[in-house]
Design goal:
The protein is mainly alpha-helical. It is built from five helices and no strands.
Length: about 80
């Protein structure tokens, strides 16, 4: 399940052509990723017109899990 979420998010980021940039940002902002996840949860109702709820939830769940965040960053670096 977790790997499916990571692959789904990685496909989105790579489709936008932001794989390298996202990997760099995730690496440098890793210490505050948990705060980013909480912010996404808090503002998810406001983000609904711009992004599907599942996408916001996927991002938040990855950001709050250090192992998943590391897996996503590694995957983005490999595929970018």
């Amino acid at each position: 399940m977790e790997s499916e979420r990571i692959m789904r998010v990685a496909r989105q980021v790579n489709a936008w052509g932001l794989g390298s940039l996202a990997a760099a940002l995730l690496t440098s902002l890793e210490p505050v990723a948990f705060l980013g996840a909480q912010t996404l949860y808090m503002f998810s109702p406001l983000l609904e017109p711009f992004a599907p709820q599942q996408s916001v939830t996927d991002w938040a769940q990855i950001l709050e899990d250090p192992v998943a965040l590391n897996d996503l960053t590694t995957h983005l670096m490999e595929t970018a």
